[in-house]
Design a protein that fits this description.
single chain, alpha+beta, Glutaredoxin, two-stranded antiparallel ribbon, 4 strands
Length: about 100
């Protein structure tokens, strides 16, 4: 999953696009994962438990969970991966430019 996310960040570096990660791993594992997986986008630790405050607030019950949010802050898709994620992101960027 991380290689695909890195490719999106690279491909869309000049667009109004970002990935924001939320990680439920314990602090040391979280810090190691950021380095080892070359996470360059914003990422937040969620208390080191799967029922952390961010996951609870967003109703996350499985990992990974992906929310695709448009430029107005509306959740438009959930759990799209790979090409399906690319298609949604590209469509939303095109909508935003209209």
């Amino acid at each position: 999953m991380y290689p695909h996310e890195r490719s999106l960040v690279d491909r869309l570096k000049d667009e109004a696009f970002t990935i924001v990660g939320v990680n439920s791993d314990p602090a040391e594992r979280y810090r190691t994962a950021i380095v080892e997986n070359e996470i360059t986008w914003p990422s937040f630790a969620d208390g080191g438990i799967t029922g952390g405050p961010i996951a609870t607030r967003w109703g996350v019950t499985g990992w990974p969970t992906i929310f695709i949010i448009d430029h107005e802050g509306v959740i438009r898709e959930k759990n799209k991966r790979g090409e399906a994620m690319d298609e949604v992101v590209d469509r939303l960027l095109a909508e935003m430019k209209r």
